[in-house]
Design a protein that fits this description.
3-stranded antiparallel β-sheet; about 25% helix
Length: about 190
């Protein structure tokens, strides 16, 4: 009988002797966080689209993904042997065209057409907005004559970014307008990431 009365005391001694403090919660830094998902940005290699992962503070924002696309291929991206093969079909934006600031739109809210850049109007900035299963990509009026491959770069980059935070089995239809373009394309035509 004495052994049964000592069992709780022995268990308490075992727990306290293993180094577990009896102080409660101990603060040890900030909250745990994971890595942000990489945004696939589509460039051209040997006449076909290739997704290159890029870091962004705003995963899921198609307008931010378009900004990454206009940055072009980066040095060393995809390995040094691939750099010479990665290109873009998109023309350079005139320096007067400011791409949207990453601080303009709030993630999770409908994307706006405002660029947030002083002295710049919505028509000067590539933007993307989604309503239901349709994404509208608006190009600056000065951006005319894009090739089919350039339009696919835009659509695949913007829709892939949107799907990062909103995965769905349904395809998105992208409407590219502006610069004399009016193109409808399903993201089902985009290569797998």
């Amino acid at each position: 009988m004495k052994a049964l009365h000592r069992a709780p005391l022995l268990a308490l001694l075992a727990v306290t002797s293993c180094g577990i403090p009896a102080t409660g919660v101990v603060e040890a830094g900030g909250p745990a966080s994971g890595a942000l998902p990489l945004t696939p940005v589509y460039f051209v290699e040997n006449g076909r689209l290739v997704a290159m992962p890029r870091n962004t503070g705003r995963p899921g924002d198609p307008t931010d993904a378009l900004r990454l696309l206009w940055d072009g291929p980066l040095a060393g991206e995809g390995g040094t042997d691939r750099l010479d093969g990665l290109t873009t079909e998109l023309p350079a934006l005139p320096t007067a065209m400011a791409l949207p600031s990453a601080a303009t739109d709030v993630p999770g809210s409908p994307l706006s057409d405002s660029s947030g850049a002083a002295g710049s109007s919505a028509s000067d900035t590539p933007t993307a907005a989604v309503a239901g299963s349709t994404m509208t990509i608006r190009l600056p009026a000065s951006m005319a004559g894009l090739s089919d491959l350039a339009v696919r770069q835009l659509v695949c980059t913007a829709t892939a970014a949107y799907r990062l935070t909103r995965p769905s089995a349904l395809s998105l239809t992208a409407v590219v307008s502006g610069g004399g373009h009016l193109v409808r394309m399903s993201d089902a035509r985009c290569p797998a990431r």
